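Archive maintenance. Older records in this collection stored only the sequence; we are now back-filling the structure field for every entry so that each record is complete. The fields below show one back-filled record exactly as it appears after the update. Entries are processed alphabetically, and ADP-ribosylation factor-like protein 16 is next in the queue.

ARCHIVE ENTRY
Title: ADP-ribosylation factor-like protein 16
Organism field: Pieris macdunnoughi
Length field: 181
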Amino acid sequence: MDDLEDKIPVLCVGPKGSGKTTLLKKLQDAEGIDYTYSPVPTIGTNIYDLHYFNRHGKKQVVTIREVGGEMSQLWSNYLEGIVKVIFVVDTSNLCQISAAAVMLYTLLAEPKLQRAKFILVLSKMDAAYRQMRNEALLMLQFTRLSKELRNAPILLEASPLTGIGLDDLRYQLTDTKTISK
Ligand SMILES: Nc1nc2c(ncn2[C@@H]2O[C@H](COP(=O)(O)OP(=O)(O)OP(=O)(O)O)[C@@H](O)[C@H]2O)c(=O)[nH]1
Ligand SMILES: [Mg+2]
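Back-filled structure field:
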């Protein structure tokens, strides 16, 4: 059947409160995601499907599983078949970033994710937190990662509340050229 959808399985992780749910809901064009939106922390995991047509007009779906930051020990249960990983870091919370870096390095070293494409999202990059960007990258040792790793993460800056970075993220998720067979 040619209307069967191709699925791109994606994992979305990062420390609690880093903005994963807000980002993924906004990516789905959900209504009411603005400064009045107050998401509840994700208990366990959530699935977000992004439906779209690829450039050959074929229906595709990016299936993104968010693992709540509180449940970080569950990550290893959801690695099978993952082709892309969105790792969300809260730019406004520098205190959390060293811990985030350890989580990121653990995932990058995970044997089951060696072929996965990593997308590192600096979230909450609205005007108030923009000046913390460089410190955040320094604490993540992003330059070193980019030089040393074959599967170095793609860096994106996003603020779901203002819409910054959403198109770039959508592009990275739907781009099948970055998927290793
Ligand atoms: N200023 C600002 N706040 C944001 C932005 N994105 C998310 N937030 C806020 O950050 C808080 C946490 O957002 P969530 O989306 O629940 O974070 P999460 O990563 O899903 O958290 P867990 O599910 O607990 O791991 C909420 O109060 C959001 O309103 C943003 O772009 N800018
Ligand atoms: Mg969440």
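Update note: The mean pLDDT is 90. The chain has one domain: 7-82+94-151+163-174.
Entry marked complete.
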